[in-house]
Amino acid sequence: MTSSPESALSKALRRRYLRFAELQQHLKELAATYPDLVRVERIGSSTAGRPLYVVVVGREPERARPALWIDANMHANELLGTNVALAFVDDLLALHAGDNRHALSNAVVERAKDALVYVMPTMSPDGAEAIADDGRFVRSSLLDDKPSSRPRWRQVDIDGDGQVRRMRQLDPCGAFVESRNVPGLMLPRDVDDDGPFFSLYPEGVIENYDGESIPPWRFFDDNPLDLNRNFSAGWKPEPAQEGAGNFAGSSPEARAVMSFASSRPNIFFWLNLHTFGGCWIRPLGDAPDSKLASDDRAIFRLIEEWTSAHVGVPTVSSFEEFCYQPEKPLAGDLCDYAFLQRGAFAWSVELWDLYQRAGLPRTKPFVDVYGHQSRGQMEVLSRFLSSLQASPLIPWKTAQHPQLGEIEVGGLDPRFSMWNPPEGPLVDDVACKHAAVFFRLLSLLPRLHVQVRRTSLGADTALLELTIENRGGIATSGPTGAQHLPHNEALRAVVVDAPRVRDGCVRVVGHLGGHHAGRFGGDTTWPYQTTGEPARKTVRFVVDGNAPVRLRVGSIRTGFVDVEG
User: What is the pTM of this model?
Assistant: First the structure.
């Protein structure tokens, strides 16, 4: 077994979060070290002009065939996805070099080595740099193009320490108190509390301040775009969907992703890496599971078995367990775009399961885990993070605010505690557990196999019988519900030497099923029997002459297999 070369940055990304210049250097080194396996493509530019990259990994990277897409860091504060995505690239390249880091079976190894992978390491490079620089909250982009004359918060450094944190101010009407058990931790006020009471704000100033009314901080006050509301599937403008952007694809980042994906119909699996929560969120976004095709439910259940076994997290329905308001689906999100418009099985992967690691229970619906922590549970989280040397609580110190007077600055720094694991071995731990599932997804991709049988019919004429098989785990159509999409064309068999064919040179094969379609339900109440669409079909041609005939079988989704018969 041959060990693969590993650069200093490859090792570093398993323990700490790379800056954008380091990311660029790492991608440059990958392309130079693996010229036969890696292509780095610039697919656009961010709002601030930084390059948006996609790394293409696989044998013959220009050859189209069924592929897995992974993107990361669409939410600027969620840095871990970049590390997980790039660690998987390194693991895949190591596999090509004979280094099986995850003890994968021979079957998974061979299928993974034949697959194609697209990785977008960061979708929000501008916001990620701001998060690393000064800690201010950025959802996706720094762009603030929403005209407004209302009072609103703008995050700036008030106390001159170079960081943007939280502010608190003594206020008898305040809704927060400091924990008696964890110094510095602010907790929601209870009826039994006797003070002192505080109001909490972001560190910053109030634009359009009238001198009296202090506005509440709204999530998107000074960075109004959420990339995960800017995609074309079900897009709705504000106020129906906060963070939506001016129109679907108005951001250069979302537009670049949609443009790239639209020219890559061969994407069958789509992983949208997030950080905070510990679950895999799957379609449908706007309807319950009963509206999913049974074969699609079966595939999602299979992947849930893998996420439970290898990562220890569930998969949850976006509609049933991840609507922030009951039965009010998120509009314009990437997962629905990938599933409904690109025909790819898709998940929003929340990588960092802080709650589980701290020993806190999961809630139903899952989205409530974000906002339904008791005061005692918040103290548990804080102590747990301290045990990891995350030290997220910055001591409060007095400062003078130009509008509010005396305040204190400090509080929770969530960057490398709540939002992402602290730098160190936990980064690699999360990456390794998820890579085990990523590799298994590669083993499910459709795989065309073509056999040709030639039978002489006499008089210089022959019958060609092509047996076309899909030896992959999912159907060549991807999700059943995607068969109507224009790019989801049926398989065809074509005789290239058309003049020699007596009865037409094209046969429409249609779609072929995959061998995992009937598992975990499908259309049967009896679990262990063959179900789903046939995975094998035969077509026939009558040709003249004894010389071999060239044939091509496939589609723009599966790629093409060239044979002779």
Answer: 0.94
Average pLDDT, the chain: 91
Burial 431-464 (b: 16+ CB within 10 A, else e): bbbbbbbbbbbbbbbbbbebebeeeeeeeeebeb
Task: Please tell me the distance from the alpha carbon of residue 316 to that of residue 280, in angstroms, as a whole number.
Answer: 6
Are 455 and 462 within 8 A, CB to CB?
A: yes
Res 517: pLDDT: 55
64 part of a folded domain: yes
538 CB burial (10 A radius; 0-12, 13-18, 19+): middle
**Do residues 140 and 227 touch, judged by C-beta distance below 8 A?**
yes
Q: Which residues pair with 539 in a beta bridge?
A: 466
467 strand-pairing partners: 451, 538
8 A C-beta contact, residue 132 and residue 19? yes
3-state secondary structure 527-560: CCCCCCCCCEEEEEEEEECCCCCEEEEEECCCEE
What total of structural domains would you count in the chain? 2
CATH of the domain at 307: 3.40.630.10
Last residue of a domain, one of 307, 341, 357: 357
> Higher pLDDT residue, 267 or 457?
267
DSSP character for 480? G
3-state DSSP assignment of residue 491: strand
- Among residues 331, 357, 383, which one ends one of the domains? 357
CB atoms within 10 A of CB 479: 25
Greatest pairwise CA separation for the chain in angstroms: 103
Check residue 437 and report its DSSP letter: H
| Per-residue model confidence as pLDDT tens digits over 145-199 | 877 788 999 999 999 999 999 999 999 999 999 999 999 999 999 999 998 999 9
Structural domain that includes position 514: 448-564
- Ramachandran area for residue 444 (φ above 0: left; ψ -120 to 50: alpha; else beta): alpha
Which residues are registered as beta bridge partners of 350? Answer: 274, 279
Output 469 or 533, whichever has higher pLDDT: 469
CA distance 210 to 500: 84
**Other Cβ atoms closer than 10 A to 175:** 12
| Contact (CB, 8 A) for 421 and 430 | yes
The answer to whether residues 503 and 542 touch, using CB atoms and an 8 Å cutoff, is yes
Confidence of residue 3 (pLDDT cuts 50, 70, 90): very low
Nearest Cα residue to 422 out of 275, 314, 282: 275
For residue 239, say if its preceding peptide bond is cis, omega within 30 degrees of 0.
Answer: yes
User: How many C-beta atoms surround the C-beta of residue 562 within 10 A?
Assistant: 11
Q: What is the 3-state secondary structure (H, E, C) of 65-122?
A: CCEEEEEECCCCCCCHHHHHHHHHHHHHHHHHCCCCCCCCCHHHHHHHHHCEEEEECC
- Co-location of 117 and 259 in the same domain: yes
What are the CA-CA distances from residue 490 to residues 58, 296, 465, 557 (Å)? Answer: 25, 18, 19, 9
489-508 pLDDT tens trace? 999 999 988 788 888 899 99
Specify if 405 maps to a domain: no
What DSSP string runs through 158-193? Answer: SSSSS---EEEEE-TT-SEEE-SSSTT-EEE--TT-
Report which residue type is found at 132. Answer: A
3-state secondary structure of 126: helix
